[in-house]
Amino acid sequence: MKSRFSRNRHPANMPKRARRLRSNEESALLSEFDGRYMGRRALVVEADAGTRELCGRLLEGLGFVVDAVDSGVAAVALARRRPPHLVLLDLGLRDVSGQEAASWLRSNPLLNSTPVIAISALARGAKDLTQKGFDAAIGKPVSPEEFARVVRGLLALND
User: Can you give the pTM of this predicted structure?
Assistant: First the structure.
């Protein structure tokens, strides 16, 4: 199955750093794929298209079916229609704050136990995000190794 996140991403058209990242780090991550998350739904809510695409590819590589949007309002509407098993949520969305979107998701009985991971440039030093409705945080720029560690660790706690 071809990823919708890999369209128009032929390696020859990508910057050298992106080719190296894709070929080395993503390949290492995908080589560890064990099918554990196959068919689970993930929702990526990220304002930056590049980060949204990278997170989508990494989640698909772990077996997730990925929905991706760039606004909090769209995320809440989509999550109500197709409840995800995991949400990655940017703190700096264009319409509402990530914290507000997280509280909207948590207020829905179908979604209140869904793990929500904050994605932010500020996430590396923000230990208080768990008090703000997030279960974990991934810093920007997104590192595939950190991404896999956080996602797998969080889902292992919730399985």
Answer: 0.78
